[in-house]
Amino acid sequence: MTKPSPERYSAVAVVLHWAMALGIFALIGIGLTMKHGNIPKAQVVQLFQLHKSIGILILLLVIVRLAWRLVQAPPALPSVLPALERKAAHAGHAALYFFMLALPLSGWALVTTSRFNIPTVLFGLVVWPPMPFLADSADKAAIHEVMEAFHKYGAYVLIAVLAVHIGAALRHAVKGDAPLSRMSLFGGKAGGSAK
Ligand code: HEM
Ligand code: HEM
């Protein structure tokens, strides 16, 4: 007999979801401020390092998160949801995972190919290496241009996908058909295993 699906995400998945959400909101805020804010150059330099540090942390965490997802399957979406909404939710989640991987990778690629050659020092402590294969590429300038555009417009698309994700989560919470407690830090016993 197959085990019934748990009603909640596991504790590990919940903690990773909210820690990464916090990190990504910070990255969006810092990214937009360092590029478009009217602030002194010295602070811009610090913000770039902070942005790169949190961004690389997100890259490492998303690898852990995807590995965990393979080990511990997420709870099935409630069967009361129409099939189309379940498909849309899965597509939205896949898009979020895509950007959680693609944005840090494109960020790493764009700093590796930058003509300024500024090292990435994570939280002022650990030197992060340039991306293998790209550091010695003959087409650095062209790659840089593509990665920079991808990173910028990718981040804008992520913001739009996040608006839909948060809107959908709140809408279902109000309707009560897919409660927020499925991903809540405090909503009772976090199920890792089937009930
Ligand atoms: C940067 C911000 C965020 C990102 C990248 C993000 C990403 C994700 C992803 C990828 C999943 C699917 C997890 C899986 O199946 O493995 C998910 C689920 C979920 N997220 Fe977010 N999320 C963010 C912010 C938020 C916020 C602010 C809320 C609350 C309003 C929220 C509420 C939820 C809920 C309730 C689920 C579970 C959906 C279900 O019932 O299955 N998320 N999120
Ligand atoms: C989920 C992860 C990330 C998100 C959401 C994100 C978001 C952003 C945003 C919103 C901007 C401003 C775009 C603009 O309006 O021009 C930006 C710029 C930038 N990001 Fe990220 N970022 C992430 C990861 C990274 C990583 C890991 C690095 C490098 C290691 C990085 C390096 C940069 C750089 C150098 C810029 C400035 C690019 C330019 O001069 O046009 N980012 N990022």
Automatic annotation (TrEMBL):
<keyword id="KW-1133">Transmembrane helix</keyword>
<feature type="domain" description="Cytochrome b561 bacterial/Ni-hydrogenase">
    <location>
        <begin position="8"/>
        <end position="183"/>
    </location>
</feature>
<dbReference type="InterPro" id="IPR016174">
    <property type="entry name" value="Di-haem_cyt_TM"/>
</dbReference>
<comment type="similarity">
    <text>Belongs to the cytochrome b561 family.</text>
</comment>
<dbReference type="Pfam" id="PF01292">
    <property type="entry name" value="Ni_hydr_CYTB"/>
</dbReference>
<keyword id="KW-0408">Iron</keyword>
<feature type="transmembrane region" description="Helical">
    <location>
        <begin position="118"/>
        <end position="135"/>
    </location>
</feature>
<keyword id="KW-0479">Metal-binding</keyword>
<protein>
    <submittedName>
        <fullName>Cytochrome b</fullName>
    </submittedName>
</protein>
<keyword id="KW-0472">Membrane</keyword>
<feature type="transmembrane region" description="Helical">
    <location>
        <begin position="12"/>
        <end position="33"/>
    </location>
</feature>
<keyword id="KW-0813">Transport</keyword>
<feature type="transmembrane region" description="Helical">
    <location>
        <begin position="155"/>
        <end position="174"/>
    </location>
</feature>
<keyword id="KW-0812">Transmembrane</keyword>
<feature type="transmembrane region" description="Helical">
    <location>
        <begin position="54"/>
        <end position="71"/>
    </location>
</feature>
<keyword id="KW-1003">Cell membrane</keyword>
<dbReference type="InterPro" id="IPR011577">
    <property type="entry name" value="Cyt_b561_bac/Ni-Hgenase"/>
</dbReference>
<keyword id="KW-0249">Electron transport</keyword>
<keyword id="KW-0349">Heme</keyword>
<dbReference type="InterPro" id="IPR052168">
    <property type="entry name" value="Cytochrome_b561_oxidase"/>
</dbReference>
<feature type="transmembrane region" description="Helical">
    <location>
        <begin position="91"/>
        <end position="111"/>
    </location>
</feature>
